[in-house]
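Hey L., structure's done. Input below.
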Amino acid sequence: MSDSPQTRQHLHRLIDALADGDLDPAKRAIESLRPANPSENALSEILERNSYDTDKSEYYLRNYERKFAHLRERPIALLEVGVHRGGSLYLWRDYFSRGTIVGFDLHPPASFSDESGRIRIFPCDQGNAPGIRAAARSASPDGFDIIIDDASHMGTLTAITFQTLFYDHLRPGGFYAIEDWGTGYWDRWPDGGAPLMVAAPHFSNQGKRFPSHDLGMVGFVKQLLDEGALADVFHPRFGGPPTRKCWIRDIQVNPGLVIVEKASV
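Output:
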């Protein structure tokens, strides 16, 4: 929100209306402070306008927009792990007009250039935790507001990256996205496999247990759900004694995309 004379005038009107208990002027004052015609599809519009070389679907972009829109005008730091030819980095640069954009990739694109000077790419192996840690410290010593993993889509490597970056290099209140976790359902994916399917939805159990598919990325995402449930694991009446803080405030699970919000300190 700007600090213009018009904004201050609207704020004074809002305060006076609330003090008088007159809600209609208060509502009008609030409406006047909202941006005119904000786009709910800005990421898709940027991508369509510039044809950047990225395979992020409109479905992913809509979910990102819902989570990230309030950060758009802030000087955020964003890291994407796995950048291929770098097209998504241009997309994030244009969306976050004051943001610092960082990419990690095992084989950074040799011909990549950025006239804005706000994008940097580091060579980094997703399976090398010390290397990831060193690159993160160098790229953004104060941490990142957003981290996106679009790298190997392999459960073990994705878990290493998450453990390394989420706890020590994502700022409190930040977002950690994991793309394409559905590879764990694919027979042709190295650590995936087809789940046992029946003709109709069926949630079978074996006593207390409800066995489920747990290969590759799918198994890792289900472990994240357990980690996000520590409040119940350590429930003061029914759970066990608390052994650590739960750093997951919220998990949004969509087909192919998981977005984890980190708890505040």
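The mean pLDDT is 90. The chain has two domains: 1-34, 42-262.

-- N.
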